[in-house]
Amino acid sequence: MIMSMPEEETTFPSSYQNSHVEEVIDSEQQEQDELLSTTMTPRRRQQQQQYQQQHGLHRRHWMVVAALLVIMYVVVSQQPQPSAASDAVSMHQAGGLWGKFKTPEEEAAKQATKQAKQDAKAHAKAEKAAAKQAAKAQKAQDKQAAKEQKAAAKQAYLDAHPEVAQAKADKKAYWKAKAKEIKTYWKDYGNTTAEHYKDMKELYKSKYNATIDGANSNTTDGEE
Questions:
Q1: What confidence tier does 205 reach under pLDDT thresholds 50, 70, 90?
Q2: Angle between helices 14-39 and 42-77 (to 10 degrees)
Q3: Which residues, including other chains, have CB under 8 Å from residue 45's CB and lie 6 or more apart?
Q4: What distance in Å separates the CA atoms of residue 67 and residue 64, rounded to the nearest whole number?
Q5: What is the pLDDT, as a whole number, of residue 218?
Q6: Where does the record place the region Disordered (predicted)?
Q7: Taking phi first (over 0 means left), then psi (-120 to 50 degrees means alpha), and beta for anything else, what does residue 12 get?
């Protein structure tokens, strides 16, 4: 059985196709120039040549554009077309056109990972707070124990040295008596000062009354 081989499209380089298009345009232009030189008057021929020069550029431009479009179509048509499965994989890998495309399993795994992170964060925070509270309680306990130990050591020293305790008691009694004495002194001084101000007030009051009485008596004598 003879199997027929698929026909391969013959493609030419873009440079060859562009040059071929230009040759066709030049040949057509040459034919039109020869026709003008044999059938028209010189003035009409000049006007026609100017018209062709102006519009021939536009025609040449659009023909070149059309040739380029044909070349692009041929190149694109020869590229291998991806299958639907490869399109889905590519879209999944690229994240899709409008957003990330995830399967339900991947979305569930993502949510589970997120929840696990949140739980771990909350657990670490709770452990940190508990450790901080335990350290604070231990610090207070150590401080109280040190205070009690210091008081016990002080009492043991006083018990071993009664003279120190007696000297301390005597000193305390001395300053207590001294404070009472100072308080009594200032109290007596205040009373004395108050009595003094009271006596001075009475003295100035009597002098003022005497002055007023003298002034009144002098006024009465002058009127008589």
A1: confident
A2: 160
A3: 36, 37
A4: 5
A5: 57
A6: 106-148
A7: beta
Establish how many alpha carbons lie within 13 A of residue 185's alpha carbon, considering only the half-sphere containing its beta carbon. Answer: 6
pTM for the model stands at 0.30
Q: Tokens at residue 99, please?
A: 């957003």
pLDDT at 189: 81
Per-residue pLDDT, averaged over 118-142, amounts to: 93
Instruction: Say if residues 93 and 55 touch (Cβ distance below 8 Å).
Output: no
DSSP string, the chain: -PPPPPPPPP---HHHHHHHHHHHHHHHHHHHHHHHHHHS-HHHHHHHHHHHHHHHHHHHHHHHHHHHHHHHHHHHHTSPPPPHHHHHHHHHHHT-SSS----HHHHHHHHHHHHHHHHHHHHHHHHHHHHHHHHHHHHHHHHHHHHHHHHHHHHHHHHH-HHHHHHHHHHHHHHHHHHHHHHHHHHHHHHHHHHHHHHHHHHHHHHHHHHHHHHHHHHHHHH-
